[in-house]
Amino acid sequence: MELDISKIRSKTGSEKSFDLEQPVEDITEKKIHFLQPVHFQGKIRNLDGTLYLEGEADILIERICDRCLSSYKQPLRIRIEENFYPEYKKIDDIDFFKTYNGNQLVLDQTVHDGVLLNIHINSICKEDCRGICPTCGKDLNEGSCSCKTETTDPRMEILKNLISEE
Ligand SMILES: [Zn+2]
Ligand SMILES: [Zn+2]
């Protein structure tokens, strides 16, 4: 996703509104897939060389459930605010500063940060997801499997251990 900043990048005090609908790279390391182009609208201002962007993005992502391993959709509407500094101002070793250089501002990382701040770290398709059976691998949301449920009664465990020691 790119925003044209040619008209405001060298004029302090200038601003422009934007309304973009563009694809964004997937967040592969978190297994987050963007199902459709991101709709991002807002305003960007040049405040003494620093570009201050604020807006709202409509996003539809697909994630994999940690419990049952199936994919599910999650719509998001998120608020994004970010400062972009001219590249020459970049301080060594400080990576979280976002910079601009040239006439296009690339917004993929900004959208990624916004998504990661607005989703649960644990990816769960629904509150009561039953996950998969550890024995046969069946998705228990689709119904129970025929595996025997292991007993977890500690008294039974002690008995079992006593028997096996004989
Ligand atoms: Zn699930
Ligand atoms: Zn099973």
Kindly describe this structure.
This protein has 166 residues and is mainly beta. The protein has two domains: 2-129, no CATH class; 130-166, no CATH class. It is 14% helix and 36% strand. The protein is built from two helices and eight strands. It binds zinc ion (2 copies). One zinc ion (ZN) binds at residues 133, 135-136, 138, 145, 147.
Brief characterization of the structure:
With 166 residues, the chain is mostly beta strands.
Strand content: 35-45%
Number of strands: 8
Shape: elongated
The number of helices is: 2
Number of domains: 2
Order of helices and strands: EEEEEEEEHH
Bound small molecules, by name, code or SMILES, are: zinc ion
**Rg value:** 25 Å
Average pLDDT for all residues = 90
For the sheet with most strands, the description reads:
6 strands, mixed
Low-confidence runs: none
SSE blueprint and pairings:
Blueprint (H helix, E strand, L loop, with lengths): L1 E3 L10 E8 L10 E2 L3 E10 L2 E15 L6 E16 L11 E3 L3 E3 L1 H11 L35 H12 L1
The protein binds zinc ion (ZN) (2 copies).
Main attributes of the structure:
166 residues; mainly beta; 6-stranded mixed beta sheet; two-stranded antiparallel ribbon; 2 helices; 14% helix; elongated; binds zinc ion
